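Work package 3, deliverable 3.1, input record:
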Amino acid sequence: MFVILTRYSSTTCETDMTHRAKYNPQAIESKWQARWEQDELYRSKVDWSKPKYYALTMLPYPSGDLHIGHWFAMTPSDARARYMRMQGFNVMFPMGFDAFGLPAENAAVQRGIHPAKWTHANMERMRKQLRSMGAMFDWEREAASCEPEYYKWTQWFFKKFYESGLAYRSEALVNWSPTLQTVLANEQVIDGKDERTGQPVIQKMLTQWFFRMTKYADELLSYVNVDWPEPIRMMQANWIGRSEGARVIFRTEVGDHPIEIFTTRPDTLWGATFMVLAPEHPLVEQIVPAEHKESVQAYVEKAARQTELERTADDRDKTGVFTGAYAINPVNGERIPIWIADYVLITYGTGAIMAVPAHDERDFAFARQYGLEIRPVIRPDDAGDDFCVNAAYSGAGHMINSGRFDGTFANGEKGRKNGAISAVIDWISGQGYGREAINYRLRDWLISRQRYWGAPIPMVYRADGTVEPVADQDLPAQLPADVVMTGVGNPLANHEGFVNTTDSNGQPARRETDTMDTFMCSSWYWFRYLSPRKSDAAFDAEEAAYWLPVDVYTGGAEHATMHLLYARFFTKSMRDLGMFEETADIMQAHGRSPQALFDEPFMLLRNQGQILGEEREGHYIRAHGQWDSNTKLFADQVNVIDKEEALMVDPVALSHITGEFASVAEEQMSGTVMGEIVKRTENILTVRDSKGELKTVEVRTGAEINIPDVPGTNTVNQLKHHLEIQRMSKSKGNVVNPDEWVNKAGADTVRAYLMFGFDWTKGGPWDSQGIEGPARWLRDVWDIVTAGAPATASGNPDAERALERRVHQTIYKVSLDMENFSFNTAVAALMTLKNDLRAALREPGKIGAAAWTQAVKTMLLLMAPITPHLAEELWERVGGAYSIHQQAFPAYDAAKAADDMTTLIVMKNGKPVDRVDVAAGISEADAIAAAMATHGAQRALNGGTPKRVIFVPGRNEGQKSEPKVNIVV
RNA sequence: GCCGAAGUGGUGUAAUGGCAGCCACGAUUGACUCAAAAUCAAUUGCCCUGACGGGCGUGUGGGUUCGACUCCCACCUUCGGCACCA
């Protein structure tokens, strides 16, 4: 018999029967997972006699396979939830699926699988994978947003928002593909073209549903009673972008159309030398005289082909077009030209600005570009001749060229804090030219999606054009199952059976065919976890009264401004609509004050970073097929080729060399794309060729795929792309498969590695070699514990005391680190304890059985949240009572952790020059005397006297540190 | 471009303003082995030195401080977000 033992072999070495069993993670993990499930160890039930802890981690999108990023987010969160449980809390740690979304539709269009089928299959698969983590998820509380029992309530929330005036209809731009007659997601648009067809995409106005989120802008700026990371709060504050200023009405010279503008600088009104409208501004059509129609039209169309990001990039040259119309500046009656430019956005402010080139950088650049007047109206006191000639000036100064306000001091600040602004606002208000106003960068939340796989917006349009919500008893407005997903048009709008309905009077009516943004589904899911099966309410008030609010929320920082802001808005709206009244009553009945508990959804927020793909070669390909457009190829054959070959500039020349084509003509007719795969969604590849151009390759069903390294018939899914370290995602094909690692090394090892190998807030690239450290740690722990207690009852008292000291120092460190989400240092401390324990055991007789048992049991309890299966197994073997996860976390004893001796650091000007062993807690005088006696100090002083001597006392409790004496010479 | 964050040995990382590099990975040497793997022991920031020892060192340049990876200013690079990916 020939047995190959790999590093991760789970095979016990049977030839060596004298050895005890090796660590076999697979066996113990499945055993304990089954036992825990059978015993309902992680069922979280309301128990008013115990303090509760609602630990929440962001729910995954069911994209297919669980990837290592999910483990990175969830297993440390699980470890901390387990830690809180051992600290005496009744912990709820639920899980679910954010199951509506675009990838399901991609799969449907590209592979002909129904989105529901694809999603359900993925959820089933991911549930199994999630169970393999050994996390304390309470699966009885699972919720999936695509189920009618869930989205019924998403629709109900929409209705309540609509009825209270929080939801309304208005126009907004969408990415419109004229070819597909479809609205595209930003992600589907590459370089202004549809990624699937390579055809141009335009910006089109559509009437859509919005939530009045700006109503909460001010409240969203404050974070009362919550512990959220400062960077997240700052990003949200900047996203909301509150600015104080004024709205001022300019009028057109011809036709007298009012143009409302918002400005933060009303003190510069006299410096407005032109106006600019956004290309989409509704007045554009009305004010442009006939002779300018053509040029304006051309400009507006050009702007419609660009994204907002492209339009607002400051480094790009400003573009614009004169409308031929003029406006009258209300403050001085001046006639100023009206321009259209894409740097003014219809989504910000009023979509129109007064341009003050002397005091605004963007206006300055624009005026320079088109030779428009630049007139300074704020003069800095130290102004030179070149003032406002080379750059816009936005600082303090006195007003000039401003009529009655000449000489007024503007201190350069924004809002009422600036006396000049304050005075001008008061004056224009009195004159009726404008009024004080606050503007937010935050826009109302556009929730309409022209998609199939989402929760239908439960509204009905009557024959007379009025709109009404679907009656409560008719909810949910259910998605029809029988749709054909072609990627052309909107399947819901084309589905007669869905569209045609009746209104509340039984008259024929049409359904709204927009579905809701998936962020809507994820804005209330933690309420659904309270009672996921409840059919007569969104959530159960009894459960809510006990569990709410969420005590800790963990997830990626990439959600800083969108999901986390939507979630806060949703909770505040629910509070104001009275949805927590019953919950509050029940709280009070149990003596719990509901005060301020429904203002914010998540009390404590912590963000992890992202696990990046491991560095490796990606695939360069040569695809043969037929051109569909200049940039899109339908491929019948895809070959993985060498990088060098792919980077050869001319595929036509190459075809001659390789003799693959009889003639250039034939090659051009059939078509070849060569280059690196930079993106993949289902069977669509984006390839960067040797010239750096992006080409789209759609691999036809049944196409021949050749990957030299992979034997057998190859599939599109085996094509990898984009080498180098980068964000892991299914569409990038660089996913590290956790199942593979669980099979190789065990779930506990994967958990330990993810907690140990990274700064959790930062993340980083997966390293399949680095996991060896935690793997060894667990094997060592296994070996130490299964070796059993020493034969001697008691050992050397000093050695046992030293071990006890190390154990208590570790208790302190691990508790603090788990509390603070510092998982890597918690594991490091446990590894150190293992090393110390093993070193102490090396000399026979040093450690007795009692001390050994005490140390080992404590170590296992400390490890339990991190490696739940291993800890449970070994706990049983040392005679601990089932389950280790129901034990109390070890308590830290400062006296037991205290050191007798410590090292005094002697420094010269802050640099260490010597060290000496002294008693812990040494006095200042003794420390200085001891320091001065050292060699290092004598050499540093060189016979002289120090200028100063600074003593820094050490700490012998908690986070320890050594005493220091710094000699300043 | 705007907003936010991060830059520390070959690598992942650690360090309430107080010994920079804990804990690991990798590497080198040795033990065990016919050999390899595993395991064990030792070394491992860089430079000079036979050694003792010395110099330099936390992205770059300034500053504050008895003392700076840590605080402040400027710059460079990388990552996340920018409203229809989730």
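Residues 1-19, 649-667, 721-726 of chain A have pLDDT under 50 and may be disordered.
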